[in-house]
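Predict the 3D structure for this chain.
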Amino acid sequence: SIILFGQTGHGKSSVINLIAGKEIAAASSGAKGCTLSFKSYNFPANGRRYHIWDTVGLDEPDMEFTAIGQACELIQDLTSEGGVDLLLFCIRAPRITGTSQANYRLFYEVLCRSSVPVAFVVTHLEQEKEVHMDSWWDRN
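Done. Predicted structure below.
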């Protein structure tokens, strides 16, 4: 099981669509998030089967406490069913914000007790000049 997390508008649902190779998750460019509860996506891609959980953005003011409670429940459920294999942390370039850092600590350090590998997915790099896109990591 893979949990995809990050702030609202950072492209979590779009990442699922990219991995799946087709649109299976609703994505929005609107001001308010379109993922209002955790949702599971099961699909084959590149000869493998994926089970990815799309999460609520943890910066939605009217959803934050509910989202944290849902995250705790999700991880407890997945732990009892074999565990979480990977955390995908979706962040929007060009900056890593304090809210992003807090979300990382919540999922990785608190909920998963620093025991689940994390991969970073950096979105919105298309606004970087191509020569600078690959060096984004070095600069940040």
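The chain has a mean pLDDT of 83.
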